[in-house]
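Researcher: Good morning. I'm working through a list of sequences from a screen, and I'd like to move beyond sequence-only analysis. For each chain I'm collecting a predicted structure so we can compare shapes side by side. This is the next one on the list. No need for commentary yet; just the structure.
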Amino acid sequence: MPVKFRDYYETLGVSRTATEDEIKKVYRKLARKYHPDLNPNNKPAEEKFKEVQEAYEVLGDKEKRSRYDQLGPNWKSGSDFTPPPNWQTEFDPSEIFGQGGRPGGGFGRQGGGNFSGGGSFSDFFEMFFGGDRAADARPTGEDAETELTLPLTDMHHGTTRKLRVQIGRLNKTIDVRIPPGARDGSRIRVPGGGPNGGDLYIRLKQDPNSVFTVRGNDTEVEVKISPWEAALGTNLQVPTLDGRADIRIPSGVTSGQKLRLRGQGPNIRGGGRGDHFVKLKIASPKSLSAEEKRLFEELQQVSKFNPRSD
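Model: Good morning. Structure tokens for this chain:
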């Protein structure tokens, strides 16, 4: 069965007049998009990655590209195809993340697009946080991004975390300052913390186990009270981001009612603080002593309150 000629320019989606920098830029983008480690169990993506890799091995080399332009599918005729030195034993991250590098020099093809010698593409990015890693970093060109989970109180007050970063064979520990007033989804930039001198972006994620709920610039906490506390009113201590605070529960409150503590919410970037809301929930006892049951029955007889009359 004849082998169909593959137009390398068409494979990369560039014109025949494309510059070396244009070809390299498109190649990096496609390599990231179709790499097998980012597309597990995706055969079409794996095949596309190999096609892109093959096309760049030719168009990324000035001499091979010249022969290809002249001879087309017969570009190898009359000369040996000599790969760059160590092409099957080196992984040059700069071919993915930029800052130069020889054409096609980073990829050794053995068994369908895996990197040989120095480890896989995903191994290269297994480099942030060590055992305290919140999530694997993901490549974004010359930069990288990872995720860090923090308690809301740390986001409120600000904190400093030490991160262990490994770039190639270099290991270093860096201090990352989390400013007061950070929010879920905030990004912290660490200049030079990414591959090949790029930046590391840390996306903050609020610990979902917090007793507080963030609503814009405010926080909210749910506090349970008894039926008699709701009817008679009481003084309570409630949790806030700064510790416990005294609050007066007025008589006659209802379940779901909110009380506001002004200026006791989270810090706001740029200055100021939001409010803190206490959401009341009336909780009934699950079991009653004989005396409690007698008193409730007596209350039922003498009370004229009917919650369903409204």
